[in-house]
């Protein structure tokens, strides 16, 4: 099991975009540690629009915000102006 490193110093997060950025950094670090090399280097990975870590982050943040469907999450992002 991956141990949560003490290398992160997070004092206060006041904006959703900052929370998503912090979540992505942590998720990507964990993903790189636990994912087998054959998954990271699978075929056609260069054609992907989003990385695995980005997809995982989007899913986890949506769940943490208690948004249950992809359509509702997309609508939330569109209404708040957080669409990339």
Provide keyphrases for this structure:
about 80 residues, mainly alpha, about 55% helix, globular
Short note summarizing the structure:
The chain is mainly alpha-helical.
What's the helix-strand series? HHHH
Strand content: under 5%
Q: Structural class, please? A: mainly alpha
Number of domains: 1
Distance, first to last CA: 33 Å
Mean pLDDT across residues: 83
Q: Assign a percent range to the helix content.
A: 55-70%
Shape: globular
Number of strands: 0
Q: How large, in whole angstroms, is the Cα Rg?
A: 15 Å
Helix count from the secondary structure assignment: 4
Low-confidence stretches: none
Q: Largest beta sheet, briefly?
A: none
Protein name: Transposase
Organism: Tepidanaerobacter acetatoxydans (strain DSM 21804 / JCM 16047 / Re1)
Compile the SSE list and pairings.
Blueprint: H1 16-34, H2 37-40, H3 52-64, H4 70-80
Helix pairs in contact: 1-3
Tell me what you see in this structure.
The chain has one domain. It contains four helices and no strands. The protein has 84 residues and is an all-alpha fold. The chain has helices at residues 16-34, 37-40, 52-64, 70-80. α1 (16-34) packs across α3. The protein is globular and about 35 Å long. The mean pLDDT is 83. The chain is 56% helix and 0% strand. The termini are far apart.
């Amino acid at each position: 099991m991956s141990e949560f490193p003490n290398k992160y110093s997070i004092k206060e997060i006041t904006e959703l975009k900052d929370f998503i950025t912090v979540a992505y950094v942590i998720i990507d670090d964990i993903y790189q540690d636990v994912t087998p090399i054959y998954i990271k280097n699978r075929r056609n990975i260069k054609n992907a629009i989003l990385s695995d870590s980005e997809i995982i982050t989007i899913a986890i943040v949506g769940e943490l915000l208690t948004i249950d469907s992809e359509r509702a999450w997309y609508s939330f992002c569109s209404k708040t102006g957080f669409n990339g």
